[in-house]
Amino acid sequence: MMRLQVNGQTKEISAPDEMPLLWALRDELGMTGTKFGCGMALCGACTVHMDGSPIRSCVTPVSATVGHAIATIEGMEADRLGKVVQQAWVENNVAQCGYCQAGQIMTAVSLLKTTPKPTEQQIDDAMSGNICRCGTYPRIRAAIQQAAFRLAQGDKQ
């Protein structure tokens, strides 16, 4: 049995050490918000946070996450910054098909935690590893800018 800290809760799973965190989250814990995209850490659909930093869960062995705090899209509602980002996503109609959006939001939240007032170039650089097949990049940038503005104004949503 492995004990994982996911979204502030201790979860016990029985899984092989080498199982990707993505499959532990989806298949063992029933947390299906994190998506499988490419399986090679290239598209960003599987992005989650480990100790506050974005990681690709499709290539991270679940055993490497033991003792670390994991945050998924399901936990963003309880995160002040995550909630503001999600609201900006809705208000800017970012999602089209929606498949990549959990990974996009997780990356955006991480960016805003480290860079509260990002420039357009910083946004583009941070988000460049997340692919949106629908091409909603301008709306993604606008939502991040809106969230940054609201957070700077003290908006707690």
Radius of gyration: 15 Å
Major sheet strand order: 2-1-5-3-4
Low-pLDDT segments, ≥5 res = none
Number of strands: 5
Q: What order do the helices and strands follow?
A: EEHEEEHHHH
Mean pLDDT: 96
Strand content: 5-15%
Derived structural class: alpha+beta
Distance between the termini: 38 Å
Number of helices: 5
The helix content, as a percent range, equals 25-40%
Question: How does the overall form come out from the CA principal axes?
Answer: globular
Question: Strand count, sense and closure of the main sheet?
Answer: 5 strands, mixed
Q: Could you list some keywords that capture this structure?
A:
alpha+beta; 5 strands; globular
Summarize the structure.
The protein has about 160 residues and is an alpha+beta fold. The protein is about 35% helix and about 15% strand.
Structural commentary:
It contains 5 helices and 5 strands; from the N terminus they run E-E-H-E-E-E-H-H-H-H. It has 157 residues and is α+β, with helices and mostly antiparallel strands. The longest helix has 16 residues. It is globular, with a radius of gyration of 15 Å. The termini are far apart. The relative contact order is 0.16. The mean pLDDT is 96.
